[in-house]
Amino acid sequence: xxxxxxxxxxxxxxxxxxxxxxxxxxxxxxxxxxxxxxxxxxxxxxxxxxxxxxxxxxxxxxxxxxxxxxxxxxxxxxxxxxxxxxxxxxxxxxxxxxxxxxxxxxxxxxxxxxxxxxxxxxxxxxxxxxxxxxxxxxxxxxxxxxxxxxxxxxxxxxxxxxxxxxxxxxxxxxxxxxxxxxxxxxxxxxxxxxxxxxxxxxxxxxxxxxxxxxxxxxxxxxxxxxxxxxxxxxxxxxxxxxxxxxxxxxxxxxxxxxxxxxxxxxxxxxxxxxxxxxxxxxxxxxxxxxxxxxxxxxxxxxxxxxxxxxxxxxxxxxxxxxxxxxxxxxxxxxxxxxxxxxxxxxxxxxxxxxxxxxxxxxxxxxxxxxxxxxxxxxxxxxxxxxxxxxxxxxxxxxxxxxxxxxxxxxxxxxxxxxxxxxxxxxxxxxxxxxxxxxxxxxxxxxxxxxxxx
Length: 453
Prior knowledge:
Helix content is about 75%, strand content about 5%. By secondary structure, the protein is mainly alpha-helical. It has a single domain (about 20-450), classed as Up-down Bundle (Growth Hormone, Chain: A), CATH 1.20.1250. Mean pLDDT is about 90; it is low at about 1-5 and about 440-453. It comes from Pedobacter frigiditerrae. One of its GO terms (molecular function) is nitrate transmembrane transporter activity.
């Protein structure tokens, strides 16, 4: 039933469940959390799957590329669909469809089938676009950056939760005698698959498309009939944010995928320890991405759009320096510290990017969010190709149960080093582009115009 008096909220109280806006906020970030959990559920278990399926270094690289490549097309498509049909219907179907490959990946017994399931699971990454659209439409312009970043940060933490909990879930199935250690990854992936189906029910039952009701119930005058994708694509600022997001979120996906292997193969960590350490990176999202949105909103009140862009470029520069230091750390303690430091800058940059997205074009929020979000996955895919090329195969003597055995390991040190320098270059490029070619006005008009709509 449409409530024509409902309006977007002008403040965010994360401890409240009052009103459809806050109910939707909590359901959407929680759903996004489990989407990320399912998306990266295999990352901390790749060592087990790699050994059981006898995967080569190149095959592991291809699998990591597949896990992020399908998301590119999915995000572009989802952005247009939610502009037209609303987030509630699209999110429900996305969750149901993506639960299928998550539940079935455990049936893989070859490289090809595993690759195809990993590719299909990557579609769940489009959930981010829906989450950002839904928070954008539920909150007023003065708080959009904070709401988007908080929902995104809480949801992105699902990647860290997967690294932390999936090895424990796999060990739990083994301890209960339901499977062997070698097959534990197969049973563990059932858990996130079931959670996606639960979230589909919650989303369809307890959310609305907008504060005024579902899109199907709104008057035609309140819905855009224009081609929102073209509106988004014609604005050069969309592409600035797309490149920037490739440099922050693209790196986040890379670390979620590769950090567990980096810690096991470079520092000799166990799968459980590597998962917990890599999980730290994901958990940073809980406070760092919201912080990026909060700071961006504060800066936006005084310096407008250009001020937010300056903040974004500075965060990218700090991120790049931190990644180089992380790659060259040489020991696990320093690596953990540097991962924490560059992780804060990276996730703040994520939040700052999506504090800008709603102001590119208020009529095409979904399409802008989709294009920029796809940029993050394009970045992740390109980085994965680079990691595949720069990774080196090494053979080390490892002590297991008092016996020294030879292990085939993968070294990603050179790949992380090059990545850090690339991010530094993008940070400088965004800063120069903003300084030289950005509009000379402060950009406060953009925020005022959006507030008036």
